[in-house]
Amino acid sequence: MSSPITRGRLNRLTGQFHEPGREAMYRRDIAPRVRRESCLALCVAALVFGMFAISDYHYVGMGTPLTLLLAMRLLVVASCLVLALMIGRWGDYSRKAWLHALPLWILATGIILIVPLRPESLSTQVTAVAMATMAFYLLIPNLLPIVALASLYLSLGFLASAVMVADIPAVVALRIALLLVMANAVGFFALLRLEKLQRKQYALLQEERSQNQQMAEEIAHRKSLEAQLRRVAERDVLTGLDSRVHFMTRAQDLLQRSQFDKSPFSLMMIDVDHFKAINDTWGHSQGDRVLATIADTCKRSLRPQDVIGRFGGEEFIVALPDTHLEDARMVAERLQRKVAELPVREDMPDHRLTVTIGIAGGHEEATDLPSLIQSADQALYAGKHGGRNRVVMSDEGRAKA
Ligand SMILES: Nc1nc2c(ncn2[C@@H]2O[C@H](COP(=O)(O)OP(=O)(O)OP(=O)(O)O)[C@@H](O)[C@H]2O)c(=O)[nH]1
Description:
The chain has about 400 residues and is α+β, with helices and mostly antiparallel strands.
């Protein structure tokens, strides 16, 4: 549950947010809707106010009072329509609340002026004023304090002109006053409730949006962490090659595809010769540099579709899809040559950098990756025993070749 602080506290009398920034944001948010509704409400108000011209003739007949009444109605109707047009174009509710308030004052003045121009119809005018008051509060969108002031002006002005022009007894004036107080009270509290409800709804929506935003950020953060972790798990930090686990996954896929396509598949195990001696003589940092350089050299010498990984310590593994054993041997010999040509003499004088490579191959359905690795490893072992710095094919490979 969110606290009233996060939702935004509301003023008890106006229904507006206490925080001016939040109130301004709310008004900005509802501005387009208020603009549309104001235009529509003013057009309807102009129509209704103009419509009563029909009853003017009935009450005052032909003559100067009718002319004055019609002129006044025309003025009010025209003002309402012009203001509706202006609000539609420039009526930004968040910055020009006065423009939205102006029609209320004009309509109120028009209604008040009917009393001296048509004093005989006072009883029907009381009903019309009460209804106009409610319409001010509920139908023409505006801020509660502005509406309350305009309605009060309408009520007091109407009462004053009724007392002065229509010469009504005190008791009738009191009844009209009570009726108008009631209309104002009902309108005020209805609009206050509406203002509060709308702002509460807005605050809840904002809260929901911010929670969604937070959630989206959290998800993005987790995804990036996940991707980072995956990258760490898939890469060997020292050489930048595939980690053993990731290599196994990729090589497995390649082998399966080769078996499906019935295309050749070869596997190489590369081991640096006398690597321990490098560590012991020139230190582990130099050993690390040598491993990274050899890894880089091998990677660059392979095709993009080949996959190379670090299998362990100073041992690398390469999967060669679509490659016959004889071709794999040529690749291995090329790698062997490139490693031997690496310029390490300055850092490690009197040391010949060499690698021994074991090769195995096969794409028959019975062949699986672990047994291929085992065969390549056996060939590598044989190469080491045979004096190192050589390329050796597994027994099955030799038989096939
Ligand atoms: N600098 C460095 N050394 C490593 C790393 N991983 C393994 N080693 C070392 O590599 C050496 C491998 O030694 P051996 O298994 O005896 O192999 P070798 O000396 O190359 O001998 P042969 O393979 O028989 O030619 C060990 O001393 C390991 O400590 C590494 O990441 N960095």
